[in-house]
Automatic annotation (TrEMBL):
SUPFAM superfamilies: Cytochrome c. It holds the Pfam family Cytochrom_C. It comes from the Bacteria. This is Cytochrome c domain-containing protein. Residues 1-25 form the signal peptide. GO terms for molecular function: electron transfer activity; heme binding; metal ion binding. InterPro entries: Cyt_c-like_dom, Cyt_c-like_dom_sf, Cytochrome_c_Oxidase_Subunit. Keywords: Electron transport, Heme, Iron, Metal-binding, Signal, Transport. The keyword Metal-binding applies. Residues 1-107, 155-241 form the Cytochrome c domain. PANTHER family: CBB3-TYPE CYTOCHROME C OXIDASE SUBUNIT FIXP (PTHR33751), CYTOCHROME C4 (PTHR33751:SF9).
């Protein structure tokens, strides 16, 4: 290892530790959420809880109200939704206000961290070194959102890209969501969660209530996706945005 690389690696570790420290120091109101959503609220497959750290305030508020109003998490088949509904019912409006403010704060710290990791990854990829793979592994383990394009089959991606054209009208070509149409960001969510929600809309477990106009809109879109393969394709493409 030459001196510059050692220095670069040290910098990665120090800055990541500092940033993750500020992200990990969760407030008491958010601790209960972290039981299922993960220590940094970035999602947990075991509890089937999505990433809520990156969600905008308007969407968190809207979904918590949806759970409270039986628009979401009220169907017998929807076990995960039911769990979340129980939590939502225990929250007052004041609680919700506190939570969204604190998550917005986390969100800021997290964006800085991701941006930083992406920059470092780009710099390292440009260097030709025999240790590139080892460094890549290290950076991957630090980053949460680095995508390995090479591992994705191209036909799946091109089908996904075609399908995503209609999604981008609401979720944006960057997948970061658009508040005007109440469409949430999708890029940060794990694939298992995105697939599950599309299946939920299709199965009438979500987006079924006549007053839930946003949910109903998404249901009619989801019902237009013809096969599980197409769901896999569009979800895979979303992860490359
Ligand atoms: C007992 C486990 C559990 C706890 C505790 C919990 N959640 Fe959840 N949460 C879930 C699960 C599971 C889902 C996905 C449910 C579904 O499929 O509808 C979810 C979904 C959500 C969603 C919807 C996200 C989206 O992308 O639509 C929000 C918002 C949310 N939780 C916020 C919170 C907040 C805020 C707290 C803390 C006050 C919290 N959750 C605590 C399990 C939990
Ligand atoms: C007409 C606007 C519109 C279009 C087009 C659209 N969506 Fe949505 N989408 C929404 C809205 C609004 C919501 C929130 C609905 C709710 O409250 O349940 C949503 C929610 C979602 C969710 C749930 C996210 C979460 O965090 O729980 C997924 C997944 C999703 N959309 C995927 C897609 C995909 C894939 C496409 C394209 C095939 C698509 N959407 C097209 C408006 C749209």
């Amino acid at each position: 290892m030459n001196g510059r690389r050692i220095l670069a690696n040290c910098l990665i570790v120090v800055v990541s530790t500092l940033l993750s420290f500020s992200v990990a120091a969760l407030d008491r109101d958010l601790l209960v959420c972290s039981v299922c959503h993960g220590a940094d609220l970035q999602g947990n497959k075991n509890t089937e809880a999505p990433n809520i750290a990156v969600l905008p305030s308007w969407y968190i508020r809207q979904q918590l109200h949806s759970y409270q109003r039986e628009w979401r998490g009220a169907k017998v088949k929807d076990k995960s939704g039911q769990e979340m509904r129980t939590i939502a019912l225990s929250l007052t409006d004041e609680h919700i206000q506190n939570i969204v403010e604190k998550i917005a704060h986390l969100n800021d710290a997290m964006n800085k961290k991701t941006l930083y990791e992406k920059t470092i990854h780009k710099e390292i990829s440009h260097k030709e070194t025999s240790h590139k793979e080892a460094i890549d592994e290290e950076v991957k383990s630090l980053a949460t959102n680095i995508k390995s394009f090479n591992e994705m089959p191209t036909d799946l991606l091109s089908q996904g890209k075609k399908l995503y054209q209609q999604c981008s009208a609401c979720h944006g070509s960057d997948g970061l969501g658009r508040e005007v149409v109440k469409a949430p960001p999708l890029v940060h969510q794990p694939m298992w969660y995105l697939k599950k929600q599309l299946n939920n809309y299709q199965a009438g477990i979500r987006g079924y209530h006549e007053q839930d106009s946003s949910g109903q809109q998404m249901t009619s879109i989801a019902q237009g996706i013809r096969s599980q393969d197409d769901i896999d394709a569009v979800v895979t493409f979303i992860k490359t945005l």
